[in-house]
Amino acid sequence: MSDDVAKVIRHTVTRLLARREHGFWELIDKLRQKGIEEQAAIDGVMQFQEAGLQSDERFAETIVRNTAAKGQGFRRAKAHLSSLKVDDGIISQGYNEADIDWYAVALAAKQKKFGIETATDLQQKAKQQRFLAYRGFSQEEINHAMTYRD
Question: Whose C-alpha in 37, 52, 76, 112 is 20 to 30 A from the C-alpha of 12?
Fold first, then answer.
């Protein structure tokens, strides 16, 4: 790898990581878009990983937390992380590290969209369940949100 290519990799990855956490393969893709060969990109990003500046574990935990903050379920976060080629073990670790009450997130999402009243109309219940399923909540979390009473 030439010094010019190494400099571009260092500059690009530093700039990207200064803004937010990025996954390993996400950084590789961004470098490839700049015309960097894949192996050179991998070698460059691995240097950041070895220095502790890039971490898929931190990235996964950040995505899980951000997903919950947006009122979305873990399934949504898992699908997003999987699309970015993050390992399933790392995704599970991010889930555990985040320590989020997904039942409370599902309830808050339901109440924000539909209010605190429990739906009695079958059509309204179905609409709320579809909404929560689309947001990435499990069936257990949806049932909890649908039947919760103060």
Answer: 76
If one counts every other C-beta atom within 10 angstroms of the C-beta of residue 135, the result is 21
Query: Side chain identity at 92, as an amino acid letter?
Result: S
Residue type, 103: Y
Nearest residue to 22 via CA among 43, 50, 53 = 53
**One-letter amino acid identity for 109?**
A
Output the CA–CA distances (angstroms, integers) from residue 79 to 85, 86, 87, 103, 137, in the order listed.
10, 10, 11, 19, 12
pTM attached to this predicted model = 0.87
pLDDT in tens, 16-26: 999 999 999 99
Domains and CATH numbers, the chain: 3-54 (1.10.10.10), 57-98 (1.10.10), 102-147 (1.10.10)
Nearest CA-CA partner of 45 in 81, 89, 1: 1
